[in-house]
């Protein structure tokens, strides 16, 4: 499989849940170090978010990373350097985002990492960390979320955007506002 085929397979990869993998934190740490080595001045903080950051959580086997920057101007200056550092993205998708930039890494036709570049300590930054921390602290909520994700993955297997939108009410019930 060549690079173009691998990317297309990763883009079209269905939503699929797997059991928690104890290797996920190490995969995050490796990518965090890699990013901070390449962008030490631009990245103010790098956090593991999403379901792979919650011990025991069913998840898509994709490491979600949130990188904090000083401003969206800085985020935009990182666009091309990130593309040259193993990430890919859709310019059209990012054009519709006002509070973050989104990138993906892939290998062998599978997504491996999602990178969300956001303003450090912004509302979005605090909400994403609050959601992660709430699920880490409350096993009952984490079980409810895992159950919901399995159901949504089944009903939205080929539509990642619909899957993400369908989780919105649950996320808002935890953090108390819109995460978009």
From TrEMBL:
Q: Specify the superkingdom.
A: Bacteria
Q: Which organism is it from?
A: Billgrantia bachuensis
PANTHER family (UniProt xref): GRPB DOMAIN PROTEIN (AFU_ORTHOLOGUE AFUA_1G01530) (PTHR34822), GRPB FAMILY PROTEIN (PTHR34822:SF1)
What is this protein's name? GrpB family protein
Against Pfam families, the record matches this protein to: GrpB (PF04229)
